[in-house]
Write a structure and sequence with these properties.
The protein is built from eight helices and 13 strands. By secondary structure, the protein is of the alpha/beta class.
Length: 302
């Protein structure tokens, strides 16, 4: 495993969305240059947004071999991207009919990965989801198989959104093997923006049962930027799946004590940290060197 330090040229899909509008500024603060591919502009004067239909493979190939902004016509030659981060998607069920959610998410992910690999881009990061663990969009009250939720868990979702994300992971694994590139899939937890702590977390703490579908875990949108940066800077891992969450559980009660009461029939398979998030980020801490910054307790009185 090698760590790359110089600023990279990154194509980011879906950068105008809830997560992207925080991740992109973090990436830029680390010296990277970013081109945003989206259907709506990002409200950031330093980032050029190209309107692209990612379900059209021709548009994707063209966009990934494009200039990053108009000023680059003055360069001696076209500079290719160093990395692609693919976040664009229907963000959940019920935005469109289920078959369109599945079609759009699977096809766009395939197109982005295929184009990047065939254009010689060696680093690809894709957004998978916490929903793959099978509870978030399950019908009725469903338990997890075991805790903690880690990357080797037997994921078995029943909904179209989460299934589309699993198809993305399988596509990533196939192309990483075929082309010998790094493709890292992030199983992203419930994304929290800075203003949402004061607005939402008191209710979460008062009614923890409402957070079962998110496994009492979350990811601060700014810390997700750090995770993406660590993915870009860490080379040589091939295909990998990483849970992308913050360190701690969103309850007033320590993790094991809480889980034994909330899910008494669910086994705990290893010793867990006192406040460890049930959707555990141990792998990104140990493999990518992620350091938690925006713990919810900094912003909410528990």
């Amino acid at each position: 495993m090698a760590a790359a330090t110089a600023g990279k040229r990154i194509v980011f899909t879906g950068g105008s969305g809830k997560a992207g509008r925080h991740v992109i500024p973090y990436l830029m603060s680390q010296g990277h240059k970013v081109l945003n591919l989206d259907l709506v502009p990002l409200d950031n004067p330093d980032v050029y947004t190209m309107k692209v239909d990612l379900t059209d493979s021709g548009q994707v190939f063209n966009a990934l071999s494009s200039h990053f902004d108009m000023s680059e016509y003055g360069n001696a030659s076209l500079q290719p991207p160093d990395a692609v981060i693919h976040f664009a998607a229907y963000a959940r069920n019920m935005l469109v009919p289920d078959n369109e959610c599945f079609r759009g998410n699977v096809l766009s992910t395939y197109n982005v990965i295929e184009a990047a690999c065939k254009l010689g881009i060696k680093k690809i990061v894709i957004a998978s989801s916490e929903t793959t663990y099978g509870v978030c969009f399950a019908q009725g009250d469903v338990d997890y198989h075991s805790f903690p939720l880690e990357e080797d868990y037997d994921v078995d979702p029943e909904d179209s959104y989460a299934t589309s994300k699993l198809c993305g992971e399988r596509t990533a694994r196939s192309f990483a093997r075929r082309f010998g590139v790094d493709i890292y899939a992030l199983r992203i937890g419930n994304v929290i923006e800075p203003h949402e702590y004061a607005r939402d977390f008191p209710a979460y703490l008062d009614a923890p049962a409402t957070r079962k579908r998110n496994a009492w875990s979350y990811i601060d949108a700014r810390d997700l930027g750090q995770i993406c940066d660590r993915c870009v800077k860490t080379d040589g891992l091939g295909f990998q799946v990483f849970n992308a969450t913050n360190d701690t559980i969103t309850t007033r009660v320590p993790t094991v004590e809480f889980l034994k009461k909330a899910c008494p029939g669910v086994k705990i398979t290893r010793q867990m940290g006192e406040w460890e998030a049930p959707l555990s980020n141990r792998k990104i801490r140990e493999v990518l060197g992620y350091k938690d910054v925006h713990d919810w307790r900094k912003y909410v009185k528990s």
